[in-house]
Amino acid sequence: MTTPPAGAAAPGLSALAAALHDVVVTSRRVRVPVEDLRRVALAADLSLAGSPDARARLADAIRELEASGAVTLPIKEALWERVPRPALPRWVARRAARPEAPAASAAASVSWHARLSWVPSFLANDRPSAAERSLLRAVNSFLGAGGSSFVVPLRERSLQLTGDEKALDTTSRGRLFATGRLSLRLLAARRTSPPMVRHRVGAGRVTLLVENYATYDSLSTALPAVGEVGEVVYSAGNTLGTVLTALADVGPPDALAYFGDLDVRGLEIAAAGARLATELGLPPLVPAERLYQLLLQHGRPAPTGPKPDAARARAASAWLPESLRVSVLDVLLAGNRLAQEAVGLELLHNEPPRTVRTQ
Q1: What was the pLDDT predicted at 2?
Q2: What tens digit of pLDDT does each residue of 304-351 get?
């Protein structure tokens, strides 16, 4: 197997494996810890958060990298996490690139379709990622084969081109789809959005996303019609990324706020959602500070099991405003969580907040 040169990904990598490849080749360390890969995976694909097959998907992506020749995996049994299954290596090692004689790059030897005449310049000057290179090659093959007369949902075309049905969700809003480059029309694809559970409460500018359904229902009932919240949307736990994508598809709201449980994983999902909102061109996804204040005042601490790593807890709480961080860290570092259902209908009826964001 020929080892790909440093910084280049083997063709055909899935979007998740390509994201891991990028962090491996740019890392200062030859051995990249699996925790680094896990963080990159969660940031690259929000659907992994809380998913029962998240570990298996990460393992598959790591095996893809090994099969491509980009990394080697530990041989010794002690260097693998065997529980829970499937096993994961404690690190992956970047494979040293083999010296190559100066030659025209593989990209230069490609005969690009006439509608991709801009690609050689892009490859030479814009430092494309491995995932971008792979997508362009796939689109070139697609157009070379005549394209398609069927305009299909974007995720179907994404699966066909990349092997990952979600890869084009954000890529299709990025630089590859700038004017004069790729387009949905070129790919014979169209955006589709899942139906959202949403409730109009007033004329306010803020769309409030709520993690759990019971709290969504109570807020929809209790929020005043004259206030900053105009609409409440159920974000369905770890499907926040899907809901944000749907909001971008139907038209960005004026402002976004989010309210969820106070636990490490929930805050990580919120922070990842904030990053995704920026990528999608949505308004900043900010904490619903007033609601989190109520949760800290009235919530019932419940143990989460082993206490979280302190550094991870601090990183997770960084998404919150400074006024809340110390109190939230006290909860997290004690190994507890606060369920948002504590901010229930009776409480909201007695203390209906007219504003939810930091003022």
Answers
A1: 43
A2: 878 888 888 998 999 999 999 999 999 999 999 999 999 999 999 987
Structure tokens at 168: 């084009």
Q: What is the pLDDT of residues 11-67, one digit of tens each?
A: 457 778 888 888 888 877 888 898 888 888 887 777 777 677 788 888 888 888 887
Fold of domain 198-350: Rossmann fold (3.40.50)
Q: How would you class 284 by CB atoms within 10 Å of its CB: exposed for 0-12, middle for 13-18, buried for 19 or more?
A: exposed
Candidates 133, 124, 125; CA nearest to 4 is 133
What integer best gives the mean pLDDT of the chain? 86
DSSP letter for 223, please.
Answer: S
Element (H, E) at 242: helix 240-250
How far is Cα 168 from Cα 156, in angstroms, rounded to an integer?
Answer: 10
**H or E element, residue 336:** strand 336-337
Q: Is 283 left (phi over 0), alpha (psi -120 to 50) or beta?
A: beta
Q: Minimal CA–CA distance to 192: which of 153, 149, 229?
A: 153
Total count of residues recorded for the chain:
359
pTM: 0.63
Taking residue 139's Cβ as centre, other Cβ atoms within 10 Å add up to 23
Domain boundaries, the chain: 15-94, 106-190, 198-350
